[in-house]
């Protein structure tokens, strides 16, 4: 019963709603409230501030949440490993990906995974923002980045080449930049959000990295919006080649500054390092890795490129 009370508390804290927590746990909102009241009585403190309009964690509630989430993860992982032979994963899996990869790749994978794991709930968070997997209690992430040292487990999908490109209409109007310093006089379409590094583009010059500041009148926190703007002739855009393969193949976008390509990045499946990796995480990560390589190969094939593992 104590574990059920803890799970009710964590779910209510993450959803900020007893009703939503009840829906996720498949119990009534009253039962969620009752379990949290039992937990508060056991701990001898109030965990939530409640009003008629909203609820929030108290200071004690925040401290308890930070500690109990990892405890529950360890318990769930232990349960998964004990029942791994011949058993189906149960519970909820939280996954995140950038918007384009989330729509084109992770969403279909999530649906396929849930179909073959009927006792699992899959909750996707699609965002260009880099989410703290541990703090946000996310199980699996698909991420495109120049990875530095990390405490996360990283399973590499592939190295990803990028390209600076523009629509023929923009090049006809503004000319094509020939070297990195030319970017200062061009409209660049920018991916902006907290912590973003897109206001500077890092290019390769014969093995030497050059970082150039870029600017433009249009910015968004959705990479697909930048692609649309670029095809409309509104500026230069820096993109993974696979992401604009169709537009490059049919000429809607044209590469520029090919002597100074953007530095490549890595596409990887990530999950928090733990003593025991839950079966649900391993199964989903295995499927995502396989489908990600298949997806990239298909997109790059439109340009005659091959996957770089």
Count the strands?
A: 14
Q: Work out the radius of gyration.
A: 23 Å
Biggest sheet statistics: 5 strands, mixed
Per CATH, which architecture of the largest domain? Answer: 3-Layer(aba) Sandwich
Mean pLDDT: 86
Please bin the fraction of helical residues: 25-40%
CATH class of the largest domain: Alpha Beta
Shape: elongated
Number of domains: 3
CATH topology of the largest domain: D-Maltodextrin-Binding Protein, domain 2
Write up what this structure looks like:
The protein has 309 residues and is an alpha/beta fold. It has three domains: 1-82, Winged helix-like DNA-binding domain superfamily/Winged helix DNA-binding domain (Arc Repressor Mutant, subunit A, Orthogonal Bundle); 88-142 and 273-309, Periplasmic binding protein-like II (D-Maltodextrin-Binding Protein, domain 2, 3-Layer(aba) Sandwich), CATH 3.40.190.10; 162-263, D-Maltodextrin-Binding Protein, domain 2. 40% of the residues lie in helices and 23% in strands. The protein contains nine helices and 14 strands. It has helices at residues 2-15, 18-25, 29-43, 59-82, 99-116, 168-174, 223-231, 245-249, 279-301; strands at 48-50, 55-57, 91-97, 120-126, 140-145, 152-160, 162-166, 190-191, 200-205, 208-213, 219-220, 237-240, 254-255, 265-272. Strands 4-3-5-14-6 form a five-stranded mixed β-sheet, with helices on one face. A hairpin with a 4-residue loop joins strand 1 and strand 2 (55-57). Helix 1 crosses helix 3 and helix 2 packs across helix 3. It starts with a helix and ends in an 8-residue tail after the last helix. The mean pLDDT is 86.
């Amino acid at each position: 019963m104590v574990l059920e009370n803890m799970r009710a508390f964590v779910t209510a804290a993450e959803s900020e709603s007893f009703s939503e927590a009840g829906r996720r746990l498949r119990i009534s909102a009253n039962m969620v409230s009752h379990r949290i009241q039992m937990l508060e009585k056991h701990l001898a403190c109030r965990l939530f501030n409640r009003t008629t309009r909203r609820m929030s964690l108290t200071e004690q509630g925040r401290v308890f949440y930070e500690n109990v989430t990892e405890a529950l993860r360890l318990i769930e992982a232990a349960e998964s490993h004990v029942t791994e032979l011949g058993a189906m994963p149960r519970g909820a899996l939280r996954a995140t990906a950038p918007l384009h990869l989330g729509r084109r790749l992770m969403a279909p994978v999530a649906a396929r995974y849930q179909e073959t794991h009927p006792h699992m709930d899959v909750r996707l968070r699609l965002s260009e923002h880099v989410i703290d997997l541990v703090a946000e209690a996310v199980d699996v992430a698909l991420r495109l980045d120049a990875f530095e040292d990390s405490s996360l487990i990283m399973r590499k999908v592939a190295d990803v080449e990028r390209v600076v490109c523009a629509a023929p209409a923009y090049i006809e109007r503004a000319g094509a930049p020939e070297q990195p310093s030319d970017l200062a006089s061009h409209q660049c379409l920018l991916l902006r959000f907290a912590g973003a590094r897109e206001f500077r583009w890092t290019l390769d010059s014969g093995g030497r990295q050059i970082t150039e500041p870029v600017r433009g009148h249009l910015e968004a926190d959705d990479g697909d919006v930048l692609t649309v703007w670029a095809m409309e002739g509104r500026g230069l855009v820096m993109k993974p080649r696979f992401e604009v393969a169709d537009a490059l193949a049919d000429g809607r976008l044209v590469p520029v500054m090919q002597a100074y390509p953007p530095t490549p990045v890595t596409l990887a499946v990530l999950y928090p390092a733990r003593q025991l990796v839950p079966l649900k995480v391993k199964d989903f990560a295995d499927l995502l890795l396989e489908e990600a390589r298949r997806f990239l190969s298909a997109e790059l094939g439109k340009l005659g490129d091959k996957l770089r593992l």
